[in-house]
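Researcher: Please predict.
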Amino acid sequence: MINGSASLKVHPWRNNFAIMARFNSDYHESGIAMLVEFSQGKLIATEFEVQIRLNMANVVLQAAAEDISLRLEPPMIIANGGGVRWSIKLDNTNQLDALQALLGIDYL
């Protein structure tokens, strides 16, 4: 589970840069507020946007925060709005709770 003093260092992706972020602080080099790895890939989020980077075929799902809904059982992120429509199941509710706290939205 993510706590207020957690620090992240993400290994470089394609463009040879590292993303560094620290939760609940004024220090954000990249603007990334949260990064959670799960079985299908990585969940990357700010208070404005959510990205899912899937391990398979370098697929990236992206949606604005206002288009995101969260479902507890099963733990799912649902994007629907503005021409975006996708959903993905997370591994556990702790991952979903972290995103819910960042975005400040209620569960379905």
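Model: The radius of gyration is 13 Å.
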